[in-house]
Amino acid sequence: MKLWKFLIVLGIVGAVAAVLVAGINFLVLPSLVHSNEEVAVPDLRGASPQAAADLLRPLDLEVVVLRTSAHANMGAGLISDQVPAPDAGIRKGRVVKVVVSSGPATTGLTDLVGLSERQAGITLQRDSFQLGRVSRMQKEGLSEPQVVAQHPQPGTKLNKGAVVDLVVAEPGPRTHFLMPDLRGVPLFKARKLIEAAGLLMGEVDTERRGGTADNSILEQRPRAGARVAKGEVVDVLVSSR
């Protein structure tokens, strides 16, 4: 009798265990298998982080921004790289790491005015810019060709590879004229005449000399009537009391 009862209890326990195993197989195992399911990572490059998050959400994936970095061909705020790579397999519930572009790297344009064409070209190459159109003109007073203008202007922020145009001035023929006669002219007026002619005031010496107005020109160098060019220096001797 006791053996019969034991067998009944044992049968009941076995049936309960079988039901539990069946329940685990039906409810738990599918969930475990589902959690390990792999999906293909979509290509997120060119999308914003928000758009990437919306794209990954149905796949049970998350997006995390690793860093922001300059990129020559990707606009600011858009994803330029990702890990895992596009189409790689990844388990659901995992994270896709991305790099967001800050746009092309920019550099301030150096002031090239006053440099030779060769020096300007070397400077542009050093800063990763390209030499564009070079216009030429003649300018008096130059001893050698030099850059007199540039476009864009100095300090402009440019992307690498940007083109910079130059205007290069070359020494022009000097215009000669006859030196005006400054003798007897007051010094202040002589200064104005010299500057108006494109000449430079040089040394001003003084000398006591009777019969002359005070502070007027007694002598000059170059002499009156000599051929002179703009930029030349004029020395004068001025009367004093």
Summarize the structure in short.
The chain is an alpha/beta fold and 241 residues long. Helix content is 26%, strand content 35%. Strands 2-5-3 form a three-stranded mixed beta sheet, with helices on one face.
How would you describe this structure to a colleague?
The chain has helices at residues 2-35, 49-56, 117-126, 187-196; strands spanning 38-40, 62-69, 79-83, 89-91, 95-101, 106-108, 130-139, 146-151, 157-159, 163-171, 176-178, 200-208, 217-221, 227-229, 233-240. The protein starts with a helix and ends with a strand. It is 26% helix and 35% strand. The radius of gyration is 44 Å and the shape is rod-shaped. The longest helix is centred in the N-terminal third of the chain and has 34 residues, at 2-35. It has four helices and 15 strands. 15% of the residues are buried. It is an alpha/beta fold and 241 residues long. The mean pLDDT is 87. The chain has three domains: 35-104, Trypsin Inhibitor V, Chain A; 106-171, Trypsin Inhibitor V, Chain A (2-Layer Sandwich); 176-240, 2-Layer Sandwich (Trypsin Inhibitor V, Chain A), CATH 3.30.10. The strands form six sheets. A three-stranded mixed beta sheet has the order 2-5-3, covered by helices on one side. It has a three-stranded mixed beta sheet with strand order 7-10-8.
